[in-house]
Amino acid sequence: MEKKKLETRLIHGEYDRKKHYGSLTPPLYQTSTFTFDSAEQGEARFAGIESGYIYSRLGNPTVAILEKAIADLEEGEEGVAFASGMAAVSSILLALVKHGEHILVSEGVYGCTYGFLQLVDDRYGIEHDFIEMSDEDTIRNRIKPNTKVLYVETPINPTMKLIDLKMVIRVAKESGVTVVVDNTFCSPYLQQPLTLGADVVIHSATKYICGHGDVIAGLAVGKAAFMQVVRGTTLKDMGGVMAPFDAWLLLRGLKTLSVRMDRHCSNAKGLYEKLKMHPMIKSVVYPGDPDYTQFTLAEKQMKQPGGLITFEIEGGKEEAQSFMNHLKMVQVAVSLGDAESLIQHPATMTHAVVPSEKRLEMGITEGMLRLSVGLENVEDIWEDLSQALQKTASEFTPSK
Ligand SMILES: *Cc1c(COP(=O)(O)O)cnc(C)c1O
User: Fold this and answer.
1) Which residue among 154, 161, 184 is best mutated to probe the pocket of ligand 1, counting the most ligand atoms within 8 A of its Cβ?
2) Which residue's alpha carbon is nearest to atom 4 within ligand 1?
3) Residue 94's Cα: distance from chain center in Å?
4) Ligand 1, from 112, 181, 208, 250: best to mutate by most atoms within 8 Å of Cβ?
5) Ligand 1: distance of its center to the CA of 181 in Å?
6) What separation in Å is there between the alpha carbon of 1 and the centre of ligand 1?
7) Which residues line ligand 1 (CB under 6 A)?
8) How many angstroms is it from 336 CA to the middle of ligand 1?
9) How high is the mean pLDDT of the chain?
10) What pLDDT does residue 361 have?
11) Contact of 248 with 219, CB cutoff 8 Å
């Protein structure tokens, strides 16, 4: 049968209604354990001779429907669900590397990923290096004999720098290094790293995949043999499994992913130009801006430029905080990809743990703000942003 388009697969996907009494939506198997018909059946299940469910940490039918869906959407062999994005990151990395081995990481990864890499370096002897992954030779020179994994995020939070996935994957493959991509900012609707040759793709499903701000969850997709290892080791034994109800909510969220992403992206497009022209705004970074240094790469690599805009307000921390405090509809919160527009101040929030010098090196200034553009009417979002900018402008004497 010919494969349906992504928008259709988000809705009809891998869920077989015939196996569930024709239930239109996937049923919620809210159970911790599964009963066996006999002692012998229990023995056969544990021995792996008979397939079937045993205990929800080892597998659950509602979670399994979601795992099949994400594998399909990322064009991979097998999906695995986790309790959070960080459970996915930690479980995947620990299944790939051991003591004495090395991970090469793109500069500027998610804060807790940074923390996790530090932890396993300090306590378990798993080394890592952060590098700018903009040119082939730099990457080639930094791959060591013990490098097992190349870990990439693109676009990078909050500076929106992009990494050329095709290039990075090609260089890693020369040395047989496994490529892991955190695809949270794009969702499979905008970017599919496995189709470019990546080995594993990870999501904080908390963000765009959920889309409704009510679940913390993670997903990963890769080759079946490797994902089976993850299931049987770091997932099962560290125990960061997804709850059935969370999987049910995510299956509900997935149906509207394409519609939501289209709106997130069109709203962001409608806002970046207005921000760019505003006298209180020093700079705007948005991959869909033709003036953006990596515009061509964004066009090539992402289906649309995404729903996140980073901008710098004139002044610094005080101006940024005043602006946030004047917002009436846009909510001050971390996280992203929700129906509500959310704004955060990286220097004091998501990147507060990064030493200020390092932060500046990464291009994160005190006046920088990251806006996760929501699904509201774009004119209403702009009205809120502009009234808050105006109030901030009148509060600070025109010193510029
Ligand atoms: C939020 C996020 C994570 C962590 O996910 P949680 O679901 O909060 O554990 C990892 N990577 C990126 C890029 C994120 O935005």
Assistant:
1) 184
2) 85
3) 19
4) 112
5) 12
6) 36
7) 84-86, 110, 112, 153, 157, 182, 184-185, 204, 206-207, 216, 218
8) 9
9) 96
10) 87
11) no
Q: How far is CA 396 from CA 203, 253, 319, 369, in A?
A: 41, 42, 8, 18
Report yes or no: 336 and 372 within 8 Å, Cβ to Cβ: yes
* pLDDT attached to residue 398: 56
pLDDT at residue 188, rounded to an integer: 98
Q: Look at ligand 1, atom 5, and give the residue with the nearest C-alpha.
A: 85
Reduce the DSSP state of residue 89 to 3 states and report it: helix
Give one DSSP letter per residue of 28-88, joined into a string.
----SB---SSHHHHHHHHHTSS----BTTT--HHHHHHHHHHHHHTT-SEEEEESSHHHH
pLDDT digits (tens, 9 = 90+) for 32-70: 999 999 999 999 999 999 999 999 999 999 999 999 999
Taking the C-alpha atoms of residue 143 and residue 149, their distance in angstroms, rounded to an integer, is: 9
Domain annotation for the chain: domains and CATH numbers: 6-254 (3.40.640.10), 257-396 (3.90.1150.10)
Q: Which two tokens stand for residue 85?
A: 């994005």
- Give residue 270 CA to ligand 1 midpoint distance, Å: 26
29-31-35 Cα angle (round to 5)? 105
Contact assessment for residue 26 and residue 61, using Cβ atoms and an 8 Å cutoff? no
Q: Which two tokens stand for residue 157?
A: 């939070």
**How many angstroms is it from 396 CA to the middle of ligand 1?**
35
Of 301, 366, 380, the residue nearest 158 (C-alpha): 366
Provide the pLDDT for residue 397: 66
Give the distance (Å) from ligand 1 centre to CA of residue 202: 9
pLDDT at 108: 83
Residue nearest to atom 9 of ligand 1 (CA): 85
Q: Which two tokens stand for residue 76?
A: 């991979």
Question: Which segments of the chain have a pLDDT < 70?
Answer: 1, 397-400
End-to-end CA distance of the chain: 64
Mutate to test the pocket of ligand 1, among 92, 200, 206 (most ligand atoms within 8 A of CB): 206
- Integer CA distances (angstroms), 150 to 177, 258, 266, in order: 7, 29, 32
pLDDT tens track for 76-94: 999 999 999 999 999 999 9
**Cα 40 to ligand 1 centroid, rounded to whole Å:** 42
